[in-house]
């Protein structure tokens, strides 16, 4: 698939904005995926290309947290394997689904993720006691990994929330280990989608560079001015792009709703 230079530039800008927001609030895929689809990239290719550019961001974050001694590889070795296996399964299912169904279904998931981010709360800073054991952590990592392989946006937030609410980690350690699990699931999903020939490499690498740059700006801005604006901006941009997708009469979900309205009238 060939895209004009102007479209590539706009998608790189979307990746830059996503990187800024993702650095402080997570959920950057809520911007890049609908942007890719709004540019005419088919659903599976959009998800695959987004997986390529997001792998760079999560990989860099894992290195940064590991250097600060915040990643416990001994405890999270098997959960990381579980996230990898789950994502491979999710990506495999993705490649076997009718693209027409995905075009109608993905906007629903995008709206659901925007609502989740609007309602999600911040957690405690310190670790606390938990009764959940290694088996529960393994299963949770595999389940969220499957979701990441199939779709993706919000995965880091899901991992972080689960690690805080169920497994007792404080915010910083939860985020650090969420990035580790998310990196594993990104790699697995990307491997399956690369094998299927679904990744738009030049576009994905351009967006990856923009995403990394945006993440640096976002982190700097959060330190200087705080991160309060990131989440509302994420929700507004995500919903605006989703509305653009649904405004196309050719979208299967929009076409189905219009058909129902015509038959009812």
From TrEMBL:
Pfam families: TauE
Coiled-coil region: none
Main location group: membrane
Keyword Transport among UniProt keywords: yes
Keyword terms, alphabetized: Cell membrane, Membrane, Transmembrane, Transmembrane helix, Transport
Membrane topology category: Multi-pass membrane protein
Transmembrane annotation, as ranges: 47-64, 76-95, 101-120, 132-150, 156-175, 187-210, 222-243
Family recorded in the similarity comment: Belongs to the 4-toluene sulfonate uptake permease (TSUP) (TC 2.A.102) family.
Descriptive protein name: Probable membrane transporter protein
């Amino acid at each position: 698939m060939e895209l004009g230079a102007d479209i590539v530039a706009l998608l790189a800008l979307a990746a830059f904005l996503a990187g800024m927001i993702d650095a402080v609030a997570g959920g950057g895929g809520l911007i890049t995926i609908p942007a890719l689809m709004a540019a005419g990239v088919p659903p599976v290719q959009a998800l695959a290309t987004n997986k390529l550019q997001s792998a760079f961001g999560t990989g860099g974050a894992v290195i940064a947290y590991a250097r600060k001694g915040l990643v416990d590889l001994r405890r999270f070795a098997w959960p990381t394997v579980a996230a990898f296996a789950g994502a491979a399964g999710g990506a495999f299912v993705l490649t076997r689904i009718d693209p027409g169904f995905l075009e109608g279904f993905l906007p629903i998931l995008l709206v659901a993720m925007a609502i989740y981010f609007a309602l999600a709360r911040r957690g405690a800073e310190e670790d606390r006691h938990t009764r959940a054991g290694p088996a529960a952590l393994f299963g949770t990592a595999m389940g969220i990994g499957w979701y990441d392989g199939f779709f993706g946006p919000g995965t880091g937030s899901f991992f972080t929330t689960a690690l805080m609410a169920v497994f007792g980690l404080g915010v910083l350690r939860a985020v650090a280990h969420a990035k580790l699990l998310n990196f594993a699931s990104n790699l697995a999903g990307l491997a399956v989608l690369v094998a299927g020939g679904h990744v738009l490499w030049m576009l994905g690498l351009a967006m990856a560079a923009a995403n990394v740059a945006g993440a640096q700006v976002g982190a700097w801005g959060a330190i200087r001015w705080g991160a309060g604006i990131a989440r509302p901006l994420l929700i507004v941009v995500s919903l605006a792009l989703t509305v653009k997708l649904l405004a196309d009469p050719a979208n299967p979900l929009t076409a189905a709703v219009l058909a129902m309205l015509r038959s009812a009238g």
